[in-house]
Amino acid sequence: MTAETSQTLDRGLRVLKLLADTDHGLTVTELSHRLGVNRTVVYRLLATLEQHALVRRDLGGRARVGLGVLRLGRQVHPLVREAALPALRALAEDIGATAHLTLVDGAEALAVAVVEPTWTDYHVAYRPGFRHPLDRGAAGRAILEARRQPVAEPGYTLTQGELEAGASGAAAPLLGVTGVEGSVGVVMLADAVPERVGRRVVDAAREVAEALR
């Protein structure tokens, strides 16, 4: 540190960098040890960063990077969508169902990119900006499952009728993308999702993750 720099700002930026380097968040105690400061300082830093949506804390108290970091650059969401669109388009056309990329925003799942199939007579309408609780719908449940059981190879989550009557969903989490917590999925008008759809969604999630790295 020099006379021209701010110690508090420096610590806040270090907090963001530490959180960006982990997929599963850090506790106040873990941040305290890594920063070499007491817990009170960390609490204040996190509270300030939370006010600006740069940090969020889950129900277990672990701090993670917030979507406010993305909002700092207005072109970030368009860039994320652009990177994900080829895989989503291929998924929608292959399955004949609406495909989406969903990111965590606080306690909600936020659809940031959506592609509808071009050849079907009917499909589920799903729009970017659509929000729902993380514990409802395949997109959010896939993210929560990845939090509970982090693995190198993702599985997929299936739901039926949780967000819309008569609609079923399949989603797989994004893995290995530093600072991004999300999932790729499809929603279709069906009583159940065929097994091949689940496997195809896993492949699409892997493709999107590679495009975002």
Keywords:
6-stranded antiparallel beta sheet; alpha+beta; two-stranded antiparallel ribbon
What percentage of the residues does DSSP assign to strands (E)?
15-25%
Tell how many strands the DSSP assignment holds. Answer: 8
Order of helices and strands: HHHEEHHEEEHEEEH
Distance between the termini: 32 Å
Described by strand count, sense and barrel closure, the largest sheet is:
6 strands, antiparallel
Structural class: alpha+beta
Approximate helicity band: 40-55%
Number of helices: 7
Widest beta sheet: strand line-up: 5-4-3-8-7-6
* Overall mean confidence score, pLDDT: 89
Low-confidence stretches: none
What's the gyration radius in Å? 19 Å
Account of the 3D structure:
The structure is a single chain. This protein has 213 residues and is of the alpha+beta class. It has seven helices and eight strands. The strands form two sheets. It has a six-stranded antiparallel β-sheet. A hairpin with a 2-residue loop joins strand 3 and strand 4 (108-115). Helix 2 (28-35) crosses helix 3. The longest helix is centred in the middle third of the chain and has 20 residues, at 76-95. The mean pLDDT is 89.
